[in-house]
Design brief:
four-stranded antiparallel sheet; 377 residues; Response regulator; Bact_response_regulator; 14 helices; phosphoprotein; Rossmann fold; alpha/beta; 41% helix
């Protein structure tokens, strides 16, 4: 099946860096943007702008996203730029952004599931993506969940015998419909809303909405018609939303930017810390799961480590002791970050080899002072 093939395609790309998977079928093209094997966004196919607006109406209806269009650049997908801006301007929460991405990806995958086959190309990206992009991108487990949902929608559509219909068609009520009992409100039958739009607005399944209209189509009361996509936001050549670290704070050619590893499972804290550190001229390596990420620590050899005490399936004190017993990190400064800021915790942290102890969430000025204190040595 097509989605199974796509799942394997995504799995094969898990060892690649940031990039774009381009899928083609006849005249349709889809673009799937990946960040370290995680799926950030998908677009293309039929009505990508309607799809985007539909997802926002569902999860963040109060955001006037077109007002942000003047800030777009031509450097990367406008949807990804708007997700960045939506979060930075506090129009979107992390959870809302995740839901928008999931909804859009599900619809793209549904479209792909109805293709007989597709060809694929991989285009690596060299530009630096924002920290926010790396936080909201769908993990391997989330990708499988979205694939399963798309498959379920497709199977329901097929079981209802709707294979020859396109959900991007818009139903329109004809003049001969006077006195007819309508299964949905007439406002949805003005030829301006697609079956996808109606399904989302009524919070009913796509197959259920479409099947309810088929008897009226058979009577000649309603007909389906093609409608165009909404206008694409205009990109302007302005300063990109996301800038490479080197542009945020220039670093002399003979001076290496210190790398700081953050071992913490909170994506929100990781995002906050990255903003603090990058603006101060540091690089940051995020490690949400310490044991799985140990190879990354060995590979990159950070100049300083920020370590949370409460970690999934791990104890921060044990991790600190483990790092101290590892020759590569014998002398690396390890700053404990935790909300458990008691005298006993501080003593225990010192016993296992912690360099410093900092309350959580850390204050920017205090954090940077401590980092500077140890890295300038």
């Amino acid at each position: 099946m097509i989605l199974t093939k796509l799942s394997k395609e995504l799995e094969n790309l898990s060892k690649h860096g940031d990039g774009e998977l381009i899928l083609r079928n006849n005249n349709n093209v889809w673009h799937l943007y990946l960040v370290r094997s995680q799926l950030l966004y998908s677009t293309g196919g039929i009505h990508p702008v309607r799809r985007w607006e539909r997802a926002l109406k569902q999860h963040r209806p109060s955001w006037n996203w077109r007002s942000e269009s003047s800030q777009l650049s031509g450097s990367r997908a406008w949807e990804c730029q708007l997700l960045d801006r939506g979060f930075s301007e506090k129009h979107l929460s992390l959870i809302q952004a995740k839901f928008v991405i999931r909804t859009v990806v599900q619809e793209c995958l549904f479209e792909l599931s109805n293709c007989s086959d597709f060809t694929s190309d991989w285009k690596p990206h060299q530009n630096t993506l924002s920290t926010f992009s790396r936080v909201v991108a769908l993990s391997a487990n989330e990708i499988q969940s979205v694939l399963a949902t798309a498959q379920q929608i497709q199977e329901e559509w097929e079981d209802a015998g709707l294979n020859k219909l396109n959900p991007n068609l818009a139903p329109i009520l004809l003049e001969s419909a006077h006195g007819q009992l309508l299964p949905i409100l007439p406002q949805y039958l003005n030829g301006k809303s697609t079956l996808w739009d109606i399904s989302s607005g009524l919070e009913k399944s796509l197959a259920q909405v479409t099947c309810s209209l088929l008897p009226l189509v058979a009577k000649g009361v309603v007909k389906f018609q093609e409608i165009p996509d909404l206008p694409v936001p205009t990109a302007k050549e302005v300063v990109p939303v996301t800038r490479p670290i080197s542009e945020i704070k220039p670093t002399p050619l003979n001076q290496k930017q210190p790398l700081i590893a953050c071992i913490d499972d909170s994506p929100v804290l990781a995002h906050t810390l990255r903003k603090m550190l990058v603006s101060a001229g540091y690089q940051m390596l995020s490690i949400p799961e310490p044991m799985r990420g140990f190879g990354q620590l060995i590979e990159h050899k950070p100049d300083l480590i920020l370590l949370d005490l409460l970690l999934p399936n791990a104890d921060g004190y044990s991790i600190c002791k483990f790092l101290r017993d590892t020759p590569a990190f014998k002398d690396t400064p390890i700053i404990i970050l935790t909300a458990k800021n008691t005298k006993i915790d501080r003593v225990r942290a010192k016993i296992v080899g912690a360099t410093e102890f900092l309350g959580k969430p850390p204050q920017e000025e205090e954090l940077l002072q401590i980092i500077h204190k140890y890295l300038r040595k």
